[in-house]
Amino acid sequence: MTPWRTGWIAIWLWGWALAAQAAIFQTQLDNGMTILVKADHRAPVVAHMVWYRVGANYELNGITGISHVLEHMMFKGTEKLAPGEFSRRVARLGGQENAFTSRDYTAYFQTVGKQHLAQVMALEAERMRHLKLAEDQFQKERNVVLEERRWRVEDNPEARLFELFRAQAFVNSPMRHPVIGWRTDIEALTLADLADWYKRWYAPNNAILVVVGDVQADEVVALAKQYYGAFKAETIRPPKPQKEQRQQGERRLTLKAAVEVPTVVMGFHVPSLLTAENEKEAWALELAAAVLAGDASSRLARQLVRGRKVAAMADAGYNATALWDPLFTLSARPAQGQSVETLEQALWAEVEKLKREPVSQAELARVLAQAEAQQVYSRDSVMGQAMVMGMLASVGLPPDLADRWAEKLRQITPADIQAVAQKYFTRENLTVGVLLPNGEKPHKVPRAMMGGHVR
Fold first, then answer.
1. Catalytic pick from 59, 71, 97, 124?
2. pTM
3. In sequence order, what are the beta bridge partners of 99?
4. List of residues 6+ apart from 82 with CB closer than 8 A
5. Beta strand spans in 321-372 (E)
6. Catalytic: 71?
7. Helices 85-92/117-129 angle, 10° precision
8. Residue pLDDT, tens place only, 212-227
9. Which of 5, 26, 196, 213 has its CA 20 to 30 A from that of 206?
10. In CATH, what number is assigned to the domain containing residue 52?
11. Do the beta carbons of residue 360 and residue 339 sit within 8 Å?
């Protein structure tokens, strides 16, 4: 670790220590709306977020992408606000605002001076139950989403690979659908579809209000009662579970496109904290991802990129907080002069090593230190803290789990990591996607943002 990095980590740790002194206050309004408040008095600002328990994993065939389209429409006017007026008012307050749709939730947020909390709460409450869905605005915004899909996915070969890879890996789970939706489904959406989706999910008893900043819990609760408390609870019908059937053999796909460098992605079906029979498996998988690709000193970077020089880049990914069983993924691009076959063999060799040899105590200690530092980085700002709290609460995990994340990881042993690798990293549970050049000249397109959409 270099001296400058050590110094910055010390500063971040000090900042998080100050932020972590305040406990999370949690309560519920009479209409079922969950309220989470965390005081952070380091600056006179406040982050205000409303999370809805709905996203791509709630969608069925034929309406994929509807959560994301509705997110766009939430900025297009209410009974009291003209299209775009919401954003203009937040800007006049000197604030920032945005929204995003993910697989498991949709969230709307603002950061403003603490004196403006009531104003943004009033604005957000207005569109919770009084959204005005107009046909002309819908047609326009659907075209915007289709164009977004074109440049994010259809004109980006690597994004297309990951989209097709997920559809190959999952058969009956909603995890196979892209968050932005399939083009044909988006084109077939109607205003009535959106109205039904809005009415079904955008209710106080399906929402979580998160406020972090220079506030007191009692004042936030009073404002929440004033602006959200009058809304009636709705009957929320939870989505029917669509558990992915067990994979019984290796799956492969090859995509040829106008690229200069190939890409290889490998994925294994694994449990999350919410789906694992024993949560230790999820924590062990979290550490396995860090061992393979947590930082520049991790195995893939050290062995494949700098050591054997078979990869130009290599990464690993795992989402421990997924609502449904996720994938544990490995992805890489071959170094110049290296074949995709050699690269895939090298990736598999690292998987086999994880299964064959327990991680050393020294390597585990390094990975734990890095994981703790990353948790600190993600939670330093008021918005970062609000994001973590809302994300956890939206999927049914304790909102303060982030405070115990490192403690949970420290309970995992090298044997635990080896056990999950042996159990899940098998050929029968493997899906492989390969992107190959087709000989055409690549087109320059904006870099695709995988995962949730941010307006």
1. 71
2. 0.91
3. 108
4. none
5. 327-334
6. yes
7. 170
8. 999 999 999 999 999 9
9. 213
10. 3.30.830.10
11. no
